[in-house]
Specification:
Layout: H1 15-38, H2 48-56, H3 61-64, H4 67-116
Helix pairs in contact: 1-4
Length: about 120
């Protein structure tokens, strides 16, 4: 369908608005990457020996105190922050591409004016 390839994310935006959006999306992506890195679950909790220990010690304070749920929450935060990072980065790239297309169109218009003698 012909209407599907039009991108409404940048429709009607000026170059200044695009540059501003690119900058803000990159900052949000950096913040999300930092959050993902801070909430990363330590490798020790992902090993087979930890799984064995967890199964063999169901009465330990870690298990009874909700430690495993805290780890699950931490992993969830890390994954969602990583997904936000990917989304914001892709949006910034999409806007950058649209900005480059707009600049190329403006340059082509200027060339056409010079060639036509306006």
């Amino acid at each position: 369908m012909p209407g599907q390839d039009k991108d409404y994310t940048t429709a009607g935006m000026t170059e200044r608005e695009m540059r501003s959006r690119i900058k803000s999306h990159r900052e949000m992506a950096y913040k999300a990457a930092k959050t993902a890195r801070e909430n990363k679950v330590p490798e020790a909790f992902l090993s087979d020996s930890f799984r064995t220990w967890y199964k063999n010690n169901p009465q330990s304070p870690f298990v009874k105190g909700g430690g495993i749920y805290k780890l699950q929450d931490q992993a969830g935060k890390s994954i969602s922050a990583h997904n936000r990072y990917v989304k914001k980065t892709n949006t910034a790239l999409k806007i950058t591409k649209a900005l480059n297309v707009k600049k190329a169109q403006d340059l082509q218009k200027q060339i056409n004016k010079l060639v036509q003698g306006y």
